[in-house]
User: Fold this.
Amino acid sequence: MEDYRRLARRAVPRMVWAYIDGGAEDMRTVAANRTAFDRWQLRQRVLTGYPARDDLSATVAGQALDVPIVLAPTGLTGMTHWSGEVAVARGAERAGTRMVLSSASTYTVEEVAAGATEHHWFQLYPWRDRELMGSLMSRAARVGAPTLVVTVDVPAHGGRELELRHGMATPPVLTPARVLDAAVRPRWWYGFFRYRRVTVRHLEDEGGVGAAVRSVRRQAGLIRVDLGWDDVAWMREQWAGRMFVKGILEPEDAVRALDVGADGVVVSNHGGRQLDGAPASLDALPAVAAAVGGRGEVLVDGGIRRGSDIVKALCLGAHAVLIGRPFLYGLAARGEEGVLDVLRILRNELARTMTLMGVHKLRDLDATWLIDTGGGR
Ligand SMILES: Cc1cc2nc3c(=O)[nH]c(=O)nc-3n(C[C@H](O)[C@H](O)[C@H](O)COP(=O)(O)O)c2cc1C
Assistant:
């Protein structure tokens, strides 16, 4: 994954890299999302008669997936590579899993449905405008999205200082050096001009920088600081499929989500892009999983870069994981093939880790497979 990260860094302008790879303020939570995994060691049992065939399938939100890995919603994915969310959806389904389409995507829910074979999930922010939310939910339902993910950790945008430093603002601050930095990446540059997939297409139907600025500004204007559980309850009433609430770090909030009718939660700090200083998702996971019990499903994202990270998350109570930046690295470097390859790498690592541990099935993974080193805390 680190190799793909390096390739991705070279493939996109610095401004875009700051958007993909950056986080909030001092990026303490970005770092914590990774170091949290170091606390846990894996138990190695030998001669357990490991079955010759790997079965890594999991039922997530009522869907049978070949791997317990779902692709997280990421906004403005067409900036990473012109093929954007359509390529991500295709890569996901070729690996036997699904993508969550961000409401801030650069291809609409209809375009993704037309370009993909399977039904992918849809993510929505509880925005100010209920008419707009209602219309997006019906559009997602019409193309067959089985699951809605409501992201609740953006009552304001996180302080993305790296983005500001590199001119990734609305509108982008274009200096000659920044234009040159993009121009020396001809493949990216060509895709950018040829396809112009840089706007939030659900809010603006044309490409181009002016439209991008309008669509991103419009989205910012839709953010509400006074959101409440009644907004999520309203969304629950409008949506007939499964619903997950994403951005949960506290057990009490997980219980509230289930109380308003969610089928599960995503333990997430938005990849460290929102509240800097929030705990690592992996550290927040056990208490949330305990509070949810058997009432719903618990997914987790943040810092997953290895198959062994997935093992640890499943041991600590997750039904499956989401990955964000890793598939963006693959996409930036190689488009759809890169997304598929990232999923293949994680799948192989997951299978190998389980074989070496001597654990037979995903279902058998629980906290007894981990050794707590205390992580120095
Ligand atoms: C470039 C980028 C854009 C994102 N956009 C969204 C979004 O539109 N909606 C959302 O719910 N989460 C968004 N996220 C957060 C991801 O869904 C996910 O929580 C996070 O990336 C997981 O951490 P990881 O990148 O370490 O795997 C975004 C993340 C990145 C990296």
The mean pLDDT is 95. The chain has 16 helices and twelve strands.
